[in-house]
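Annotators were shown the component list below and the corresponding predicted structure, then asked to write short factual statements about the assembly.
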Amino acid sequence: MSNTISKKVLLSFSGIASDKPIVSELIRKYNLEINIYRAKIGNNEEGHMAIGVTGDEKLVNESLKYLKSSNVEVKETETGLIWDEEKCASCGNCLTHCPTKALHITDSHSRRVEFDGSKCIECLSCIRNCPFGACKSFF
Amino acid sequence: MHKYTTNSLEIKNAIQYCDFMKTYEEINNKIESGSAVVLTADEVIDYVDKKGLDEAANEIDVVTTATFGPMCSSGCFLNFGHSKPKMRMTEVWLDDVMAYAGIAAVDVYLGATQLRYNDPANMNYPGDFLFGGGHVIEKLVAGKEVQLFALSYGTDEYPLKELRTYITIDDLNQAIMTNPRNCYQNYNVAINCSEKPIYTYLGKLKPNMKNLTYCSAGQLSPLLNDPYYKTIGVGSSVWLAGAHGHVYSEGTQHASACERTENGVPSEGAGTLALTGNMKEMDPEFVRGVSFKGYGASLALGVGIPIPILNKEILKYCTVKNSEIYASVIDYSSTYPAREGDIVCKLSYEQLRSEEVEINGKKVKSTSLSSYSKALKIAELLKDEIKKGDFALSKPYKMLPVNQGMQPLNIKKQGGAK
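Structure shown to annotators:
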């Protein structure tokens, strides 16, 4: 029985590892669907990629093992967008700029702003619009 | 049993015969003895609804109001103490942000919107304005180290001409926050009717009225709960970011002669307060540097103001609800910069807080720059302090003007000809 799962992962690698066509291999070898939210890759520099992977659970896990063996640092359940709860003043200015409601208010009375990383598509508009500097990019 | 009967009789008599007048002294005595009845301006709405105005006015001693948001007209006086040899500081920078030194030898005034030296501002539009006076103030309150660089021309008694050192707030003799304009009674709602995005002190406004920004704590906001300044005046004690400060003057641009709804609540900026407090007593959670893309740097502040329930009328004002407070929507792409009076429409804070409003048949996203969450927290903190007997009220020694307008600046030739 195949069990399809989706995961968000943050990949970081050195310049050498980035010579490998990582995304192609994930697609070809592991039959995964890849959604690249954001990537920053330079020659002989460190590179980062925030991707969503969808595929058979077993193959997803094997692909992550493959990435780790290829000197790629894999951070699961993390987004490239870092929301600092302490710095967030819950003004709500971001709400109009966040297209996926990753930044949202759950309690309409207290109006506290919360962040749901699984909904974040890393458009980074919150970084440009937060007066308190509560949102930062990992890369 | 007997005691119970006496108490309820006393209450009954009080309700019947007292015309609900309390004095500041009576309220402060109750605060001191730890028996004051305190509610937030948020809680008081339902409470009065349930109990009725008469009974509630008799019971409640204080209503706490609060706000948290960017307040550009803020800053602080700092005294550094004297170096050896001494210096009459003429030009001063804190973390490369210039402070005004045109006062006594080692005193300066650091303003919230002052930019860091070499900030490119809007040369690469829209600029980021990542660090300014507000951020330095935030660092000081948080106890962090700040670089002090000072220059002087040198005098006989103050020979030192240059100095660079590192200080924290504990090294300062005084750090007195002194804000000429805080706590706007109400505020414009900003919208953009043009076809290009614009960047304002109310954030980025998308073209064609896609979004709007408001900036008020609404029913929790201090001056919206005391629309005619019956209790908040010069000398009133305020909770300024955790410090026990006070109102030292009417605020700059205090313009109380304005359009008001039937309940007395202004639908425009109206009143303002000048506040001061000891920065050494402040809580860094409520003193925060802010950056507005394309506009500049500033300081967001938390302020709480207690309203003594001296009579029924004062309590009635405190029951104002978001649905009864209106703000004017203004086009920040044309009418605002041109200083024209037209407004797009008026919306209540209930509508504004619903996250989407309709203007001329168009759906517009509505967000805030004022944090209701922090304002609620401040109202609760102040309530707790008053209940514990740690925060006393003070009777204003001068009331704020209730019928004062605001003059524009006319650009004219020398001698008066326009």
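Statements collected:
1. Chain B has a mean pLDDT of 95.
2. The first strand of chain B starts at residue 38 and ends at 40.
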